[in-house]
Amino acid sequence: MTADLSPTPAPQLSPTRRAFGVYIGRFEPPHLAHQAVMREALEQVDTLILVIGSARAARTTKNPFTAQEREALIRAMLTEAGVDPARLRFVAVRDHLYDEGRWLAEVRSGVQAHTGGSADVALIGHIKDGSSYYLRSFPDWDFLPTHVISGLSATAVRRALFERRLHDLGGMVPPAVEAFLREFYPSADSAALRAEYEHLLACQAALDPARTPPIAVTAHAAVTRAGRVLLLRRGVHPGQGNLALPGRELLPDETLVACAARAAQLDTGLDVREFMGADATSTGLHAAWLAGQVFDAPDRSPRGRVVAHAFPFNLGSGPLPDLRPGGDAAQALWLPVPEALGSPELFFEDHHAILEELLARA
């Protein structure tokens, strides 16, 4: 695929040069269209601040590269194109699927750390669909529309990488990025991602195309005791090796909170009812139900449309019960809460965000 990156006819941009420009993206990985937008922006601003999203997350087929890797790639491809790297600044922000205000605050504070309080800031982008909503979320920053229009997407680049079509990369990414991808390809991380990609393709192929893709409903348990949280390490794809909360799909004859309790027992060998007293099926589970939350970001899972319900079970203090992993769990463990909250890059899908939300409410 060769991208057409020639600017389309458009009104002339204001001749006023800005002190700072902000370009927000995931850049998974950065490609020729990204490079063209950045070079166009640098013709209109003195300093370009690149906000790299989906930072500090486990590698997935959607987000295969770390924020540090993406920053290095952007620096390399722009330097290769003759850009002075002193004109670049970087901000890495995490995804906050269930707290948009927190995401906006992280972007704003990261940018302000580079602008020194200057109000001479412009936001660069192209409003193409609902995914561009964030371009309207910073009303105090002037908007500079890009004139670079291209059908190229990072999704196509990732597919070429996972489908072993390295010969297609040259028409989609700058030379510095292609060199990195070819070096990354034989790595253990790349092999794990290819295996996960093939697993997801097999799951999609198993769906009946004549039917609407099913919506799965799952329930998860966030069990805490003595300052630790109960987690499992996944032993299967997707997310093999990542930490996750115990969870199961809802059965026709059970409540959501009962499903979460069942998941904890099947995945880790821990029966939370034993710690709730004789009324475990009424008052104890009802308290957990009252504190539960729904997590329904449409793209929260690469497996398809999965709506998750999660419930906190606080088992108080005392000795930590022995665990026995089961199901998809390769390991069950008690992790100190601060360590779990401080390690979003170790978690499966949005389970870290779920844990953050539940513990914040608790």
TrEMBL record:
Coiled coil: none annotated. InterPro entries: Cyt_trans-like, NUDIX_hydrolase-like_dom_sf, NUDIX_hydrolase_dom, Rossmann-like_a/b/a_fold. Residues 212-358 form the Nudix hydrolase domain. The keyword Nucleotidyltransferase applies. It comes from Deinococcus taklimakanensis. Keywords: Nucleotidyltransferase, Transferase. This is Bifunctional nicotinamide-nucleotide adenylyltransferase/Nudix hydroxylase. The keyword Protein biosynthesis does not apply. The lineage of its organism: Bacteria, Thermotogati, Deinococcota, Deinococci, Deinococcales. GO terms for molecular function: nucleotidyltransferase activity. Pfam families: CTP_transf_like, NUDIX. NCBIfam families: cyt_tran_rel, PRK05379.2-2.
